[in-house]
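Slide 14.
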Amino acid sequence: MARRTKKNQCVGREVGRCAGRDVHDRVRGDWRGGFSLPELLIVIAIIVILLALLLPSLSKARERARALVCLANLRGHGNAEQMYRATYGEWIVGSPLTTGNYFTKNKQIYWGTRTPKNAPCYNRLASMWDDYATPLRSVTLGASSIAAPDESTGNAEIIRARLVREAMEGAFECPSNDRCDVSAFDTNNFDSSVWKPIKGVSYMTMWTLMRGGQNVIDHLYDYPGVAYDPSQSDETDTQVKRPLTDPAKAYDVGQYSDWDIGVPAQYMPNTKWFRDTTIKVFLADGTRYFDENTRQLDYYPLFRGTKGLWMATPPSSAEYRGSKVIGREYNHAASLSYRHGNNDQINAVFFDGHAGSLQVSGHKVSRSQLPSTCFSGNATDPKYYYPSGSIVNNPAALHMSSLGAGTKLP
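Slide 15: predicted structure.
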């Protein structure tokens, strides 16, 4: 092996030093070749701009997806409703005169006409007199899978509270209704430990289709302390009856012919009264029990009430008395009810089973402007929410005020 000379050692040391400088220079050169602070700021600004452009599109895409899920829910309820009607002679589920009739006749009110043939006068699973959801669940899940309230067991209130809660969840919950959590209204008659906060109602029936006409009102009586005998007709009834002492009980289940829109006097909640089921709404997006004074959402655990928990004044109504707007579901609570599209659509399922969207405009106004504001769009057309043959008596009480007095709805 060749002896390493001093000269070679020096050369080697120089080479090492040169190599070290090259490595150092390369490292330092790489660092010097990165982004400067202004360049980083420019890149961040570009990213922020891109996100600002993309996020609205992503938000709209998410809302479209939620709207599609909502429509699928409604179609499912429409199919179940058709199955129910096929079993019960076209009677409509969720009416105080059909599935909720038990609460009607046992809460100091009597429907004084003989029960129509095949009418489902009481569904043992109904939690309230306007409960459509639980009877529909019995169609899809089977009645045996749902525990019914039983007064004899002492736990009827617990079961009823659970049925109400379950009627707000799953397929009965609109995915765009996340803002509508409601708090239970506590009274001396109800246990606050049972009636806890629940999810808000997502899908509403229209009380204009769920209640009868003038003839129902004309045959209502009080039966104080006397059990109701459904086998008795008006002509043969031997029980002591008297006229209604509380007029509110009358329009809980019936409609006067001289109201803003008068339904046929003989109308009963049965689709045989609809000439065209493709234009009659069974369920629609909506919000119930929105307090226009406190701006809070609450609910009442009552067996019966003027509109109950699931019935709404239809979106066609613009009636107001002084500064109080009637129909808070689609007037005062418009921002919560019209929750699809650009907060200008409600989804609805019709009695023929198809589902679609109804549009509204002009509804994004302040609270003080409501009494003098009329909305527009097909969501405000009363033909969707009233029985065929109904007569417009007071066009000024409608958003679609262009309809003339005496107009007959299809």
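Speaker note: DSSP finds nine helices and 15 strands in the chain.
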